[in-house]
Amino acid sequence: MGLVTPGFGLIFWTTLSFLIVLFLLRKMAWGPILKSLKEREDSIEGALQSAEKAKEEMEKLQSSNEALLREARDERDLLLKEARATKDAIVGEAKLKAKEEADRIISEARTAIENEKMAAITELKAEVANISLDIAEKLLRKELSGDAGQQELVDNMLSKVKLN
Question: Rounded distance, CA 44 to CA 148, Å?
Fold first, then answer.
């Protein structure tokens, strides 16, 4: 049993060695280790705070971007609406001008047709009158070809003329 139970001197020197090592570790190792752990904890905390600030800024930027995007869409819609209105006004004006021009051309054409018709009727009347005169002349020449016909015509005309 002597092997399993340690002696008082061994326990004393082991405890004393342990306390000395503990004291030395506390002075030399734990201080710098705890200090570096504290610095590491502080840097992690700072990084977390920076990440939180960056997240907040990103949210602000995102909301700002969404507002700008909405504003740009509204402006685009307004420009499209104005462009459509301008297009409709231009098309309407062009249609009105085209209708006015077509009405003017039709009116001028009607006037020209009426003038041509009147000229044709006048020319036709003149031609009919010339033909009638030619026919009458030919008939009179035929009827008055002899002296008896001429004498009868002169007597007939004199009898119709009344002298005062």
Answer: 152
Report the C-alpha gap between 58 and 41 in whole angstroms: 25
In this prediction the pTM is: 0.41
Structural Rg of the chain based on CA atoms: 66
Q: What is the pLDDT of residue 130?
A: 87
d(CA 13, CA 8): 9
pLDDT, one tens digit per residue, over 37-87 is: 999 999 999 999 999 999 999 999 999 999 999 999 999 999 999 999 999
Q: SS3 string of the chain?
A: CCCCCCCHHHHHHHHHHHHHHHHHHHHHHHHHHHHHHHHHHHHHHHHHHHHHHHHHHHHHHHHHHHHHHHHHHHHHHHHHHHHHHHHHHHHHHHHHHHHHHHHHHHHHHHHHHHHHHHHHHHHHHHHHHHHHHHHHHHHHHHHCCCHHHHHHHHHHHHHHCCCC
